[in-house]
Amino acid sequence: MLYDKMAIYQMFKFFTSKNEKDFYIFLIISVMITGIFLILAGIGKYSFFNYHNRLIAGFYNAESDFPKLYSSRLSDNLTIIIIDGLGAADALRLSSFSALKKYGASCTVKIYEPSFDTSSKATILTGARPENHSILDPEQDSKKTFKLCENLFSLCKKSNLKTAFFGSHEFEKFWNEYPSDSFFNDIAPNNANLPEIDAEIASGAISFITSSKPNFSIISLPGLARTARLFGLKSREYSIHLEKLDAVISKLAKTLMINNNYLMLVSSHGHVPNGGYGGPEPEAVETPLIILGPDVKNDSLSNVCVRYADICPTASGILGLPPAFLNEGSFLGQAFTISEFLKCAKAEAVVRQKSEFYSRYNKALSFSDKKIFNCNAIIDEINKNSRPRNFHQKTVALEVHEKSLDMEFEAIRRDARSGDRIYRSIYLSIALLSLFIFLIMKYHHPFKLFAATTQIIVFYCIYYWMYFYNGYNFSLSDFNFLEGTAPFMKNRDIEICSAYMLSTIPLLLNYFLYNKSLATWINHIFIPVFLKFNLYLIFIITAQCFLYIALYGVSISYMLPDMSWALKYCFDVRMLVVSQITSLAVISLSYLGLMAFGRIPESRLPSNNGNNSNNECYTKESSVQFEKNIDA
Questions:
Q1: pLDDT, tens digit, for every residue of 58-97?
Q2: pTM for the full predicted model
Q3: Do 105 and 298 form a contact (C-beta atoms < 8 A)?
């Protein structure tokens, strides 16, 4: 029995003697780097799902100066209809939209990424981009403890204006505290009421608005987005839903466009053809905007660059409210036929609000004070240079200064991010260079390096071919975010494993080029090349992950990353984990194959007296000779 155990151990030592040290080096590097990136990815995921801009946390709940920024209202009633999932292209298929565009100002606006329902609605209410209002998506934001910053509902409450919200319960957490009244109707778990959900919400809204006459209302229609996600844009179900939605919008417009009421029609996001959303594709981010009212100039926004953030200050201007404190948009004075005095007052209110917000943002970064944020001095200068009571001249000067404020704010954000990127790039480059030098010094055998590099190229070609062949492009629109994440990621894991296994085919074909035993070939060619392939694959994936970290950091603190880069980073970490698990399985199988089919000469088996020194010497000499044959 003792002799059998020693024989088995000696067989294992023989099959691993050539690569034992390299295997332990690979195991240590693989486990260490994989573990590090799993921790870093976990930190990044946690910071995203619990995101709250730390830079503006100190003044997140700050409020605008009412007496200084208040201006005359254009109307006592404003209703915003938000159609979830309606892209600009599909809006052209609605006859109601085409009819309403003739009586109001319309244009196409790009929403901010990530283009999710809640995030877009928060931008409509606050005028802030998602990285500042910190509301990203209802699934993760339901766990957040903070409340939405100053917004249209809270501003109306301070002005004693009656408000109402009509939509689904998933948005109740963030602004149900502010509306005076609300009507909620959710999509059934089995989607049984999907075709009628928009009509039901619209009927409840019409009934309440006509009887209670709130000053400000939001009607959110969620049905089209769910239909697009379930069936895609080219499906019969989506076309039928568009027809029903057309009738709903027509009915809402006819009922609400009475007396001196104003109406705004917007969308929270669009969809790519397969029903996905959240990415940067034009179909996902280009949405329609229509403004209707007695003082709205027809076709006045067709040549104007309108931003999604402009909806909030425009709505504030209609109701005579100051802009929300974190607002980054502009009052769309070009869309109205109101007096130049009113346009000037509303433009001045936006300039004062932005100057205060941008100044605090600048101080939070510990940057030096900017003269451009001293709005009192600049407005006084504009008044001096403008002719008396020439409000048009003053309005133009204020709008020019407002553009300068926006450009300065973008420069501040860019400088802050650039400084962080330079710092991260330095220490990440040192770490990456150290790993590269170690690999080159340790594993520089020409044949094995060439074989390992070839295998890496084959692996990446196969993997990316599989990914792009399915029509994906590293965008959140590739899948239905959150509810579609798990199956999507499982399919990507299968693709990684498949590409990994297929990439070993050139190395396996190498066996037929050498007239050697299986044990010799595996121990002297397959395992050494395979270990080098994995080590250099780890290096390349590490470099990809380091690039993302250098650009956007490990955790998300005050600026959201490009979502396509973030998704690619997530895939790279998964590629690292899956490939290393697969590599351990392949190595284990190769050694099991050796143990099952390998043959060791009797002279190399342990003798009864356990004397083994000659055998070890023979093994070492044969290894050196075989290495010379490979080099030749």
A1: 899 898 876 666 668 888 899 999 999 999 999 999 998 8
A2: 0.86
A3: yes
For residue 632, pLDDT over 60 is answered with: no
Q: Which residues pair with 106 in a beta bridge?
A: 290
- Grouping H, G, I as helix, E, B as strand and the rest as coil, residue 246 is helix
SS3 at position 192:
coil
Question: How far apart are the C-alpha atoms of 68 and 323, rounded to whole Å?
Answer: 11
Q: How confident is the model at residue 194 (pLDDT cuts 50, 70, 90)?
A: confident
How far apart (Å, rounded) are the C-alpha atoms in residues 504 and 526?
10
Residue 331: C-alpha distances to residues 243, 299, 362 (Å):
33, 17, 23
pLDDT in tens, 247-284: 999 999 888 877 778 999 999 999 988 888 888 889 99
Cβ contacts of 431 within 8 Å, gap of 6 or more: 546
As a whole number of angstroms, the distance between CA 125 and CA 164 comes to: 13
Residue type, 222: P
Burial of 144 (0-12, 13-18, 19+ CB in 10 A): middle
Residues 367/399, Cβ–Cβ less than 8 Å: no
Instruction: Write out the two tokens for 543.
Output: 């470099």
Q: Is the peptide bond before 130 cis (omega within 30 degrees of 0)?
A: no
- DSSP annotation string for 528-548: HHHHHHHHHHHHHHHHHHHHH
Q: What is the mean pLDDT of residues 189-205?
A: 84
Q: What angle do CA 308, 313, 318 make, to 5 degrees?
A: 120
Average pLDDT over residues 48-67: 85
Strands (DSSP E) found in 154-261 = 163-167, 181-184, 216-221
DSSP bridge partners of 296: 336
Do residues 220 and 171 lie in contact, with contact meaning Cβ atoms separated by under 8 Å? yes
Radius of gyration of the chain (CA): 32
Beta bridge partners of 557: none
Q: Which amino acid is at 100?
A: L
d(CA 446, CA 431): 25
d(CA 350, CA 338): 17
- Per-residue burial over 460-488, b if 16 or more Cβ lie within 10 Å, else e, is eebbeebbeeeebebbbbbbbbeeeeeee
Full DSSP string of 253-277: HHHH--TT-EEEEEES----TTS--
Per-residue confidence band for 529, with pLDDT thresholds at 50, 70 and 90: confident
- By the 8 A CB rule, do 372 and 318 touch? no
